Amino acid sequence: MRCLIIEDYPPLRENIAECLREEGYAVDSSATGDEGLWYARNHPYDVLILDIMLPAVDGLTILRQLRDLQDKTPVLIISARDSIHQRIEGLDAGADDYLVKPFALSEMVARVRALVRRLYDRETAGLQVADLTIDTITRSVRRGSTEITLTPREYALLEYLAYRAGQPVSRTDIWEHVYEDHEGGSSNTVDVYIGYLRKKLHLEGLPELIHTRRGFGYLLAPPVP
């Protein structure tokens, strides 16, 4: 999953980014409203973490512009503006959640997870495809009773495919949701990691769960009877 942080205070911005990366998220960040708005309009994100008091363009203006463009990316406002009126103003502008500074990073991560679940219409932290089970809180993966050990990048790729289970996902779509803006690479990188996942998920006697759809990309789904 890919997040955008728009926050002008460097220590907080860096702490949030580090925390989210440790949780397996790809993260882009910006210190100014105009740059942040450009990122939000030119890249697909699963969650936007947005301060209100920003240089150049304030957070509420960013939020209203995105909603006017029918951008439905979940937005978590983080702000020291803590009055009921100010929180209502942020939510009415189109925010999905509002977290008052200072806050615990663990709570912020939990709210981000909840927004991702809502985005992909999931009610719980568990994802299941056939006998494959993913716990998005502990980032643990099992196939049947067998625990599967994945690298952070492998897990991020599998989680994204699981949220999109049953739908073909293009290489471009995977790249845009699993990798950060500054990372180099190509569609071959996605193919390589799909190969790694297939090897780790393959257990003797069990069917393949990751399928190739020529011209469309990859599909995580139970085998067709």
Write a concise keyword list for the protein shown above.
Arc Repressor Mutant, subunit A, Rossmann fold, 225 residues, 4-stranded antiparallel sheet, elongated
Polypeptide structure, described:
- The protein has 225 residues and is α/β, with parallel strands linked by helices.
- The chain has two domains: 2-120, 3-Layer(aba) Sandwich (Rossmann fold), CATH 3.40.50; 126-220, Winged helix-like DNA-binding domain superfamily/Winged helix DNA-binding domain (Arc Repressor Mutant, subunit A, Orthogonal Bundle).
- It is 41% helix and 20% strand.
- It has helices at 10-22, 33-42, 59-68, 84-92, 105-119, 152-163, 171-178, 187-201, and strands at residues 2-6, 26-30, 47-50, 75-79, 97-100, 126-129, 132-135, 140-143, 146-148, 210-213, 217-220.
- Helix 6 crosses helix 8.
- The longest helix has 15 residues, at 105-119.
- Keywords: DNA-binding, Phosphoprotein, Transcription, Transcription regulation, Two-component regulatory system.
- This is DNA-binding response OmpR family regulator.
Number of DSSP-assigned strands: 11
**CATH architectural type of the largest domain:** 3-Layer(aba) Sandwich
Mean pLDDT: 93
Indicate the low-confidence ranges by residue numbers: none
Please name the fourth-level CATH homologous superfamily of the largest domain.
Response regulator
CATH structural class of the largest domain: Alpha Beta
Order of helices and strands: EHEHEHEHEHEEEEHHHEE
CATH-derived topology of the largest domain: Rossmann fold
Q: What structural category do the secondary elements indicate?
A: alpha/beta
Major sheet details:
5 strands, parallel
* Ends distance: 31 Å
Based on Cα principal axes, name the global outline.
Answer: elongated
Number of domains: 2
Question: Count of DSSP helices?
Answer: 8
- Order of strands across the widest beta sheet? 2-1-3-4-5
Strand content: 15-25%
> Rg to the nearest angstrom?
18 Å
The amount of helix comes to 40-55%
